[in-house]
Structures are given as structure tokens and as C-alpha cells.
From TrEMBL:
Annotated ranges, domain Glycosyl transferase family: 131-297
Protein name: Penicillin-binding protein
Biological pathway: Cell wall biogenesis; peptidoglycan biosynthesis
InterPro entries assigned: Beta-lactam/transpept-like, Glyco_trans_51, Glycosyltr_51/Transpeptidase, Lysozyme-like_dom_sf, PBP_transglycosylase, PCN-bd_Tpept
EC number(s) from the headed UniProt entry: 2.4.1.-, 3.4.-.-
Family stated for the protein in its record: In the C-terminal section; belongs to the transpeptidase family. In the N-terminal section; belongs to the glycosyltransferase 51 family.
Biased composition (Basic and acidic residues): 1-12
UniProt GO cellular component terms: outer membrane-bounded periplasmic space
Region ranges (Disordered): 1-63, 717-746
PANTHER family assigned: BINDING PROTEIN TRANSPEPTIDASE, PUTATIVE-RELATED (PTHR32282), PEPTIDOGLYCAN GLYCOSYLTRANSFERASE (PTHR32282:SF33)
Amino acid sequence: MAGRGRSGDRIEPSFSGRPARDDDEFSLDADDRVVGSRSAPRGGSKPPPQRAAPRRQREPREREGGGIFGFLRRVIYWCLVLFIWAGIGVAGLVLYYGSRMPSASTWAIPERPPNVKITAVDGSVIANRGATGGEALSLENMSPYIPEAVIAIEDRRFYSHFGVDPLGLGRAIVTNFTAGHMVQGGSTLTQQLAKNLFLSPERTLERKVQEVLLALWLEQKYTKDQILAMYLNRVFFGSNAYGVEAASRRYFNKSARDVNLGEAAVLAGLLKAPSRLSPARDADAANARAQLVLAAMREQGFITDSEVKTAMSQTPASAKSYWSGAGHYVADMVMDELPGLIGDVKEDVIVDTTIDKSLEKKAEQSLVDVLDKEGGKLDASQAALVSIDGTGAIRALVGGRDYAASQFNRAVKAKRQPGSSFKPFVYAAALEKGLTPYSVFNDAPIRIGGWTPENYEKKYNGEVTLATALAKSLNTVAAQLVMYDGPDQVIKLAHRLGIESELQPNASIALGTSEVSLMELTASYAAFMNGGYKATPHVIRRVTTAEGKVLYENTYDSPPRVLSEQIAAEMDTMMMGVIENGTGKSAKIPGWQAAGKTGTTQNSRDALFVGFTSNLTTGVWFGNDDGKSMKKVTGGGLPAKAWKEFMVAAHKGLSPAPLFGNGQLIGDPNSGQPMAQAAPDGGQPVTAEVPPSTTIGGIISGVFGGDANANRYPQAPVRQQAATSGNGPVPPADVAEDDGSGYGSVVPPGEVGAAQTTSSVRPRRTTLLDLIMGQ
């Protein structure tokens, strides 16, 4: 009670003798606390040893955080920290580089470059052309070994990952770290496809991030099979081959549909290094890689041990260093012509050609056989061949000895002097002007201006018929005929029959001094074979899209007539004499009528033989690309031998048929009839009349769906009253005056270039055949 009257200010006790603080009502130091059973020290003093006790209690806790376990905890801790920060960094990079890409709504698969599939008449593939070099195939249409091999060696978890394979990436990192260098990639097939479709090949962080984003988009938008098919049809396999179809045809000369296990392993092995592992470059490296692919396939359970053993014997030892086979000359020709027919190729197209693959192989083999056997010793290194039917369709074409060694097409692009193989145009022009195969000319030394033509053997035969002169390829008679016809008329006829090259209007054109291509020369001969119709050479029959839409179809079903039936028949008979009795004996085909003409240029730089049966017209050239002379090779030598080998193979199994207007077959023991009326001088016979109902021209017209009529036949050249050359006019035979002795035509004099007088004219007797022919 006494305390109530005191002041309200309370005095707090103090243990240290210090004045109390307003903010420290009660305070104890650590040394003032009771620890254990010990009592607090007296007098408030704090001995130094007792103040160190708390530090001794903290030492066990420090030892608990040390040692190996503490180190591991710290490593794990910092790894987690780094992982989190790395994740944040990666996310930032993805967001940054992703923002630099176009909106995903605008992404689309680029169109695959269009392919041109070139097929033969039987539908088999000759070649593929285009940026890819092969058509696209679905997984169902290609060999099942191909996708299995690729998955086994490139992306074994393809069907289970989401576009990016973390396990595969980790495995690649470990493998590369262990090896000390890059031996394994971590990209999935989807990532590789994304890179091929959208990105450049440069290796940058930005490109890798974009590759991952695109791979995730592909996996979301397409099925696994679709992704795999796109990859296999676009990936690079080396040697300019993109896609499995192009690679299969490039390395194995077969479709990807027919690839066996060993070949599939080679293709899959190429993906790691297409150029270095190419079987065309290093067959051993390609096969070694293929063994690794087979082991991977066995490990994945795609194949068995027995299949591995079989496959080891299937891997090809080597492949040619370039596309090989004569068919590629045809493919190149098609690609040259295609833009002019359909414009730019913007989608996959199929080109149906006129080529017969069996004939193509026989043609190539015939040239190789002759070159291998005799080419070396006669200094002949190259050859070419063109074979055309009566409509102008090219059935076989070989542009050179070996396409892999040289892709230059000598049958189409090379222009050479045809030599005496040009003479049939000279003779046909003479027949159009009224001469006959039995008109007589004088084979003797002549001079035309400053030119003195000589025969190949430098011998002269005196008076000969045109049939004999053509069979023996007499240059002097051909030169006289040019002056009789006029060079311009010869050129007009040659152009009418199909020669497109420019021809020089001079007397030497008789000996084939103007350059032409083998193809146009051969096509022009087809007009003699088919009864007088122009045979425009063509190799493309039809062009369609992959869906079947027709883009082009040729219109050579109504050819114009360029020779009368009579002249065509007479020329056939005269050229038959070349093979039967003349310079082309090496080309004789047993059981078949055949006609043709040899050609040899100066110093044997070029040698040709162009001839025909009732089925095919074929031209063959031998020579050297540099124009080097061969060793006395003539058109009746190597070219005629190769021509015969090809034509015999091409006609095997066919029933012999006569040439146009020549009745029964030569040497046919069952005919019982002479082939035609015999010539008085023992030359080749001539059919005096050709029944219209049995002419080949009529047959061809029926096939083409049109009638053969005279309107298609251009008017024959107007007969010249005089042809001028050199020093004076040359009188045509039909303007010589008849002296009443029965001599109707003249033999040109030996001095053709000099001024002509009646005293220089030597007549000949008209034969009964001339009267029958209306001469």
C-alpha cells in the first residue's frame, strides 16, 4: 500500500552496475547463461578460457560439411544451377532465332525439282533427266531394304523420337569425345530433311536452332512414313544423283524398285560422305561402309545372319565413273528438243520415245566390236550410228564409242563431209531430168574449170551405165552428172529429201564436200526406202505428265511425197548394185534385199556406209574426233562391217521382204520368178512398172491414215537447157540432135570444162528398156 504513493516511474534492477537503457529491459551475455551443471561465475567477471568454448562446439559442424560427400553435394548443386541457367539460355536462343524465322503458318514443303522420265517403245526407262536425276517413289514402290538400311545406320529410333533424339545426341557426344574427333552425328532423319528442304549447308548456331524447330514442325505436320519418303527422294547420293531412284540407276543401272540387300547397304552407306564413299570413286571404301550398314541392320533385327552372308556377295565391286550406255545419247537429245515442244518443264513428265532398247544395245555392240577388233590397227577411234524406220522414227542412235568417256553426240551434232554417200542425190536428180539407170556416160579423165576429179583407184572404165557408175562409185561420172543436173538442182533435191545443212553449189558437191550430219543423211536415204515419202527424223513420240495429261504428240503421220515411185524404185535397184557388185559388198545380208552407198572422204578422214532394207535405214560413220586420217579405211570397210553386224541382228527372226518396187527376193529359192527384167550389160535389173496397190508408199499411207496422192509430191525441177560451169556451157543429153541412126542421148566428153561442139558428142544406142521407160 505504501508503494501507491510513489512515483509511477519504475526503476529496473541492474546486474552490472551500469545504468539501465530504455531499449534494453533485460539482457544476458552468453557467459551469463547456465550450461549443464555448472554454476554461473561469481562477481560477473568473464575468464578468457570460458569465452572460447562456443568455438570448440562449432568445429564438429565444420567437419560434417567437408570430405568427398560435401564435394559431391557442391558439384551437384552447381550443376543444377548451371543446368537451369543453360536451359534459360537455350530457351532465350530458341526464342530469339525463332523470332527471326517466318511465321509457321507460312511454312510449306518446297516443290521437288521436276524429273523427266525418258522411256523406250516398250515402256522401259532409258534415263531420267532433271535436277534430281530420278523420279520420286513411294515407300511401297521402292525396295524395302532401302528404308531399313537407312534407318539402321542413320536414325535407329526414327519411329519413336519426336523429331529430335536426345539419346542419340548424347550417344554421339560420348562417341565423338571418346574417339577424339567427329565420328558420329546426332541429327535425326527429320532434322536432315529439314536442313535439305529449308536451310543452307553452313554450320552455325542459328541454322542448328532453326533446324530443330523445323524438325518439330515436320513431325507435327506429317507422318513418319511421309517424312521418310520425302527424305529418301531428296537426299544427295553423290555423282549428281538426288533420291534413291537416281542413285540406283546411276550406280547399278536399275530402278530402286529392284535394288537388292547388298545394293541397299551401299546406298545407305553413301549418306555419310556421298563423294568419298561413291562406288564410282572408291569401290573398296563403299563396300567397307556397306558392311557396317549390314551389321547395323542385323543388330536392329531387320535381317538375319544368313541374309548378311548373302548380301556380302551382292554388293557391287565398282560402278562406272559416269552415266554409261548409248541410251544417254538419246536422253541428251530428248532434253535438247523438249523445251521447244512443251516449253519449260515445271512438273514431272514422261517422254515416250521411238527407241527400241534391244536395237539400241545391238547398235552399240556392233560399233564396239568392230572398233575393238580393227579400230586400233587402222587408227579409227570413234564411230556413230543412226537407224530410222520408214516414218522417220529413230529406232536406235549411238553418238560415240563410250558415253562415259565422251558425251558428244557425233550422230547428231557432228557435221562431216559425206563423201560418195552423197552421190544418190546426184543420181536421183539426173533420173528426174529424164536419164535412166542404163544411160551411158564415159568414165574418163575430165576437167571442170580448174578441178580434175579422179576415181578412188585412179582407174577408168570407159563407157558405163549409171547403175554401174553408182555401184563402183565412179567420181568422174558423178561430176559429169552434177554439171548435167546443175548443182542447184542437186541441192534442191537433197533439201527436199531431208538434208537441212547448207550445201555449197559447186561441182565438187558430187563427191560430198559439203558437210552434213549422219542423222540427216540417214533420214534422207529413208525416202528411197519407203517409196518416195519424206522421213522426218524424230525421237519423241509423246510427252505426258505423271498424271497422264498429254502435253505433246508428234504429227508425222502424213508425210509429203518427195520422189516419184518410179524414181524411188530405180534408185533402190541401183543402190542394190552397190552391195551386190560394187563397193559395199561387205554389207551384204543373207536372204535380204539391201541397198546402200559407201562414202570416203579425202585421206580417209571419214568413212560412211548408209543403207536400208524394207524395214530400216541405217547410217554408220567411222573416224577420229580430231580429223586425223585413218589407215585406208573406206566406207566399204569398217562402216559396212558394223552396218552388217547391226542389221543382221536387227532382222533376226523377221521374214525377208523385198525393197520397194523390186519384186521377188534376191536368192529366194522358192520364188521361181526372176526379180525383174535384166539389164543388157549385166547390171542390176529394174522393175519397169510398179503396181499402185502394192507400193510401200501406199502401205505407209494406209498406216498413217491418209491417201498418197500426187498433190503431196512437189513438181520436179524444170529441166535446164544448159548448165554452166567453168569455161562454158555443158549441153544436157536430151538436147542433142538425133541424126537418124537410132542414137538418142550423148556421152559427155572428157573435156567438160571446154566449149562444147557437136564434134565432141559421142552417141550411144538406145536400149529396149529405154523405150519401155519412155526415153
